[in-house]
Please model this.
Amino acid sequence: ILLLDEPTNHLDLPTIEWLEKELLRYRGGLLLISHDRAFLRRLTNKTYWIDRTVVRRNSSGFAEFSDWSEKVLEDEETEFRQLNKKIAEETRWLREGLTARRKRNMGRVRQLQELNQKKIERLRKQETVEFTLKETERSGQLVLQARNISKTYLDNQGDEKIIARDFSTIIKRRDRIGLIGKNGAGKTTLLRMLIGEEKPESGKVKIGVSVVPVYYDQKRESLDLNASLWSTLCPGGGDIIDVGGRDRHVVSYLRDFLFEEKQALSQVKTLSGGERNRLLLARLFSRQHNLVVLDEPTNDLDVETLELLEEVLSDYDGTIILVSHDRDFLDRVVTSTIALEGNGFIEEYPGGYSTYLKQSRQLSPSRHKPQNSSQRRFAGRRGSELKTKLTYKEQRELDGLPKTISDLEAKQSLLQEKLSDSDFYLSDPKKFTLFSKQLSDIKGQIESAEDLWISLEERKEELETKNFRKS
Model:
């Protein structure tokens, strides 16, 4: 018999799929703990569910878990309603029905106390993670653009490894981008380059107007292990957090993430891996943002929290970029997949992981051979290797847009600086109103310029793709 405790944690997708195949061939017994739902579906034929201190057994595999667990919870809800009804009846009797037969009455009083205790335990057991995710300020249509970025690094043996070579992409508002690749391919490095946390060796990344990112890092390095949970959420002091425009007391907010009141002053280093992940999520959702960046967010999260996170991200009005090895999570959240395929080759595919698998298998193995300018595009959306068929006017307009946007952003920064002066309004309210209107107009001009930039870039790419197909 094999005993496996979270075997897919920190494995890349190809290794997870290889492990699945090996375990399917294994003739012995298998007992595994996992939050990887696709992994569980393929390998299990019985399920043990540890639910609020109770171990429940189902004779079907994880594929049937959702229907079965829903039925269990519905039956519990029926029992809870019956319990409430019984408590109401006994409470009414206690108020109205005391008689001389005191001994029997005391027995019924004890029964009522037991029923109330059951109700308290039931309510305690129902605790689940609760959170919402709201875009605090709408970003422009262009969230970020990477143009011909390249990056290499030296591995432990001193050999040069290529992460990206002339990779280009455009990410627009409300895109949900998933980054996948083997361990060591450079997913986190590419992610950090895209959001400006790390610089490429060549090429350029432009962050759009009014983009406010919030970053969930895989290694939890942004958590101060010696800080308390309270100070992690309120680094400037105080006890109130603004969550989506609503004031919340820090202890009440921590309860939403299943932390007890006494843990609020505990140090972060006392938390388990799953608790640290929940704390990161709590901090992430309490900050202002319109771009959510998640690096392996599913590690150490239980299935229920995973499903809630998927639902919250699906309803989010902002933009999402994430790295994950959870196939279900990718399929249910992302609308586009960027695959780091090795040696600097990066390809972009519409849809989630399942769609990526189908498309990548249809492509010729020769797609990773060096190609000249008349062949298939190299390393994703590239810059200007093929001759474009934009009109002269369109190309001139496209070439001039980066400077136009840069000039507008400089004016925007200047106006924001002046308007941030607390004495400005008191000294000249008319000028303050005029500058406020100018700032609003400039924001609109930047958004329009970015929309045109995206439109021309996409048209250019479409024409280049047609040019490639003809060749």
